[in-house]
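Sample A.
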Amino acid sequence: MSHVTAIDLEIKDLDALAAACHELGLFLQRNNAHWRWFGRWVDDYDASDAAYRNGYPPALYGTGEHAISVPGSSYDIGVCRIPDTGKLTLIYDFYGHNGRTIREHVGPACEKLKQIYGVHAALNAARQAAARAGRSFSFSRSVKADGSHVLTLNA
């Protein structure tokens, strides 16, 4: 079975993605053009988040620009460029044990990874802006009871 989904996230900062992966115990394999999945498309998943319905054709499944290794899973998360839009996003097979293992690390729709990626992307953007202005900055980060992250930046 293959249930390959595309995550609604555009990756614009690979360093932020690497930092988010590290924080979640994952490993970004840069320039790894192959990510592990079931291995063949059997046309058994047709939901709105199916990768092929979001511009990533089944002929490309298992290929991309980078891969994210997930401890305990023999499947990876692909960091893939959508051919028609050029958007870099996350694609993975969530079926069975491997999919459950991935979702335990990143959340059912990659919410944890998306949120931590956003934190690191914001911090990287703040660092770059401060450097361009010749200033330093500091920040604090806290996690609310609902799991959301709060960043406070001071320049």
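Sample B, a different protein:
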Amino acid sequence: MRDEFTPTTKDHIAKRVGYLCSNPDCRCSTIAAAVAHDGIVNVGVAAHITAAAPGGPRYDSTLSREQRRHHTNGIWMCQTHGKLVDSDEEHFTVETLRTWKRDAERRAFRALVAPAAKQELQVGEEALDDAVQRLIDRLGLGPEENVDTVTARLVQAAASDLAAFKRVSGWPPRAVALNLRMTDGGNERAFSVSALVGTLDAFNEIAVIAPPGTGKTTTLIQVSDAILEQGHSAALFVPLGEWASQTDALLPSVLHRQA
């Protein structure tokens, strides 16, 4: 017995990504008007992230039937990539598909609330990709290198730099995670450093404001640690005292414009 999605659930999964394929390298539209009649042509599928039945791709026996049929276990794909992810389950893991789903839903939301910024974002991404490739070329890296391998090396280097910073005199041997809070009107909500890192995908800038000696530097170091733990981003921590004494630009001009 397969734990299939209901038509309502399939529709919910599709609408959350604007009927676009969730594969970040595809993102094609999957629905349009039919030409020969007044109906609709749909070439999208609601694929299971973990299989609907034993023996299927990425099957998880710990899930209940309700969890397998829930919209959170589905990802909207075009038919080509829906077939592809199920044919190569070792490459397209549960973690990969959940990341695709999350990012596709965020893109759909941003396109809804800021449609004018969508094209600017695409242009910015292309310019950033070109800048990264030029940086790889300037570093004299071999053809086997790519953004992923360079990112892994940057993450490792950033982790080493942070570890060295923590060895300086005055850094507490057991830094305590501070309690952070967000104030919205008369409402306040406490959150952790890890939760703060999660907002970096949605906001370009975050300002940590507090009186001197209350732990701003400690908090920023902990934020950097949390970013590095994710493994796909390199946190760049620059003490203002060191930056102010330098004459060179902090980042290459193209990267600086995109930051």
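Observation for Sample B: Residues 179 and 192 are 7 Å apart (CA to CA).
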